[in-house]
Amino acid sequence: MTARSAQVWWQDRNVGTIREDERGIIHFRYSDEWLHRDDFPVSISLPLHKADQELEAHSFFAGLLPEGATRQRICRQQGINQSDDMGLLLAIGEDCAGALSVLPPDIRPELGSSTPVALPQEDFERLLRKKGQVQGTAVASAQRFSLAGAQDKLPVIRRQEQLFLPDAHHPSSHIIKFETLNRVCFAEYMAGRIAHSIGLPVVSTSYRTTVVGKSTLQWLEVERYDRVKDSKGRLVRLHQEDILQALGMPVSMKYQSDGGPSIAQIGELLRQHLDRPAIALSQLRDWQICNFLIGNWDGHAKNLALLYTPGSAAPTLAPFYDLVAIEFLNQLTPGSYARDMALFVGSEKNPERITKAQWEEMARQLSMPPKPLLQRVRELAEQLPGIATACREEFAREHGDRALYDKLVGMVRKRSRWTLKTMAG
């Protein structure tokens, strides 16, 4: 079999080449053009000072690809084996998370050289009804984009009220998330609002509804944090990578229980490589406390990312994304998700066994004094019931009231009360 390769691009500049070896492992080499300009590294795990080498890079590039049912659907549509990472990159690598485009060797991006494909309203409504299934829509024939993760989502370009499909020439501006599980859009929107209210930087998310026939369908529209406008008003991709990619770990290790990184490893990565690491570490601390109190058991290593901005000497911690009140969903549909924390508190993954001792252990793992961290746990446990109530009332004013909204507030109140009790010793 002929070895397959692809070119990696940032806008119209060649970053380097990826090549698949006889075992199916992906390797990467920086281009001379990229090295001579002293640009940003593709990943902390692929440093520029190793530029004269071909680097093993499978974990980074496979980390750009979707997972789970989304991956299965795209592979069926494209006629690609589900384990073929290189084939999938060649098929859908035009618009990935972050700045990079992965294109076949004979194709190069020509920015603004064409018009993006419009997404007709009837196709969008079909996507809402089918919870992201693209068959029979404009997406099926135009899909050459990749978003990592297990949830069905669609990158789009929003221009006023019209949606378009992205490609190598036209970066996506937003991500559409579909209601793939009962009330998951509400659970994610509320989790983000609560996190924002305690001062965490989170992605800008709109909760939307569309009436199709006799049904009112819910969806989320998330503004991409890895996009900015240049001096001409054109959308430009910013580079980013998630924590797994930065550590050179495969997607299969995103959960700590599967051998993935601990909060100690993540904290050390931030301390060594980030601009203003103290701020990032305090945000990481608050994110983990918030996850615990709102019942977000799925806060894994792919839900933390580093953002590279032009002119900065080092990346920053990206705004938080994919926060979901998982425990609320479990109340609505028991057993929908596991109840173990994706990222342990101390050395404990069972939320019901996390007490003062585990928070003290987490403080030591982050090289923080325990007393201020314990005080922060108490502060947030005291604040969150009121914050959740205010967020629920705001949501009801904008989208109508439902009794089930109280379940989320009740869950946060119960978890906060229990946490304060365990911290009293």
TrEMBL record:
Keywords: Kinase, Transferase. Belongs to the HipA Ser/Thr kinase family. Its EC number is 2.7.11.1. The keyword Transferase applies. InterPro entries: HipA-like_C, HipA_N1, HipA_Ser/Thr_kinase. The keyword Kinase applies. It comes from Desulfurispira natronophila. Residues 7-102 form the HipA N-terminal subdomain domain. This is Serine/threonine-protein kinase HipA.
